[in-house]
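Reminder to self: keep the SMILES exactly as supplied, no canonicalising. Ligand is zinc ion.
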Amino acid sequence: MHEGSQITLKVNKYERNPIASEECIAKYGTNCRACGMNFKKNYGDIGEGFIHVHHIKPLNEIKEDCKVNPETDLIPVCPNCHAMLHRKYEGRYLSIEELKKLLKSINA
Ligand SMILES: [Zn+2]
Ligand SMILES: [Zn+2]
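Structure tokens returned for the bound complex:
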């Protein structure tokens, strides 16, 4: 493997907002809302409280000055699902529900 190579996930500024992320996690917990994985369950204590937070609204709908609502705009997802949500599929991004369905249909 190429040394120093890494996959960078481009997230928007709301996903980097630690306060909004914490509020989102407090509300929804640390299970991935797409695949259901839980880091504590899979990795033990080191995974405690770890999860990514995804902003639901498409980037082009976000105004610079609009406030993020951690309950309606953010959703906890694992880094794998998060990466897939930021990847275009047939010209657009999947919603969390679509990704969930996709995972179910593949792993059924
Ligand atoms: Zn997941
Ligand atoms: Zn995201």
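Points to follow up:
The mean pLDDT is 87.
The chain has one domain: 18-107.
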